[in-house]
């Protein structure tokens, strides 16, 4: 019986090696196929497509350039492994351990990665389109310029990850943790980030056009010159965030918490801020023309030189706000609270005072 098993192993080894672009260490291949354990092995550029390596020990193994399309690596241990340019399309790596793995350029389109541990992995330029990354641990991973279009990252942890320049168009990031993550120049257009946590994250120059961020947390985040046009931020918490020069054109910020935010020079043309809490915010030079600020709380806000032309400020609280040099032509201030408001040099003030 043992002789028969070894004959099968040797036969399979010959098949795998014959189809390899460059033969890996033959003894290491035999070891893997016979024991499902091959730590520190050289399996580079081997063809193991469709193979079953569930629970395999491949710690620190070299699988760079290997063909593992459709392979079963569920619960496998690939910690510190080399997977540069490895093909894992459609592979199953659910609950696999890829901690600190080197994975630059890895191709994992449509792979099953739910619950996998990628903590500290180097995944620059990784191709992860359509992957299932639900509940995955991606903390401190390098995903610079990675492609994650249409990926499912529900409840994944990307804390302190580097996603600069990454493409996450149409991705699902519901409840995803992105605290302190680097998202500069990333593309999140049309993605879903409901209930996501982006506290202290850097989103500067990123594209969030048409993104759903309902009830998301962005406390202390940086959104300098970020494109947030047509974004749904209803009930989101942006307190103390830096939103200077960001584009919020036609965004929905209804009931958003925005106390002490920096919106200097931001564009909020046509934005909805109904019942938004914008206490002590800095809106110096911001463009709020045609915005809806009905019942918004702007107490103590600095709106110096802001453009509020044709804005709706019905029932808005502007007590102690600074509206000096603000453009208020055509603005609606029905029943607005303007007690102790600074209206020095505000334009068209004489026409507005009759509204309240």
Automatic annotation (TrEMBL):
Keywords from the named record: Signal
UniProt xrefs under InterPro entries: 5peptide_repeat (IPR001646), Pentapeptide-BTB/POZ_domain (IPR051082)
Family matches, as Gene3D superfamilies: E3 ubiquitin-protein ligase SopA (2.160.20.80)
Pfam families to which the protein is assigned, alphabetical: Pentapeptide
Signal sequence segment: 1-23
The UniProt record lists the keyword DNA-binding: no
Keyword Oxidoreductase: no
Protein name stated in the entry: Pentapeptide repeat-containing protein
Provenance organism: Floridaenema aerugineum BLCC-F46
């Amino acid at each position: 019986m043992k002789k028969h098993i070894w004959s099968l192993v040797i036969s399979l080894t010959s098949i795998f090696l014959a189809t390899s672009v460059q033969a890996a260490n033959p003894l290491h291949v035999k070891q893997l196929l016979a024991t499902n354990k091959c730590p520190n092995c050289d399996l580079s550029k081997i063809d193991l497509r469709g193979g079953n390596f569930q629970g395999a020990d491949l710690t620190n193994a070299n699988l760079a350039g290997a063909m593992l399309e459709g392979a079963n690596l569920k619960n496998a241990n690939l910690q510190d492994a080399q997977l540069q340019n490895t093909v894992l399309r459609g592979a199953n790596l659910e609950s696999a351990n890829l901690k600190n793995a080197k994975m630059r350029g890895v191709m994992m389109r449509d792979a099953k990665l739910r619950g996998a541990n990628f903590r500290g992995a180097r995944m620059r330029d990784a191709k992860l389109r359509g992957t299932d990354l639900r509940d995955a641990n991606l903390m401190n991973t390098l995903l610079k310029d990675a492609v994650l279009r249409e990926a499912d990252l529900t409840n994944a942890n990307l804390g302190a990850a580097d996603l600069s320049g990454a493409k996450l168009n149409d991705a699902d990031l519901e409840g995803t943790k992105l605290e302190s993550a680097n998202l500069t120049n990333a593309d999140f257009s049309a993605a879903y980030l409901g209930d996501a946590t982006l506290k202290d994250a850097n989103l500067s120059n990123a594209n969030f056009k048409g993104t759903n961020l309902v009830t998301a947390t962005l406390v202390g985040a940086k959104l300098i010159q970020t494109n947030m046009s047509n974004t749904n931020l209803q009930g989101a918490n942006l307190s103390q965030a830096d939103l200077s020069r960001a584009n919020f054109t036609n965004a929905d910020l209804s009931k958003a918490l925005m106390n002490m935010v920096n919106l200097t020079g931001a564009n909020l043309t046509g934005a909805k801020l109904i019942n938004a809490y914008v206490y002590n915010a800095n809106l110096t030079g911001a463009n709020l023309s045609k915005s809806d600020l009905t019942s918004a709380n702007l107490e103590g806000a600095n709106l110096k030189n802001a453009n509020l032309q044709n804005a709706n400020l019905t029932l808005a609280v502007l007590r102690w706000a600074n509206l000096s040099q603000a453009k208020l032509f055509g603005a609606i201030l029905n029943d607005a609270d303007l007690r102790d408001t600074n209206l020095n040099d505000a334009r068209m003030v004489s026409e507005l005072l009759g509204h309240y």
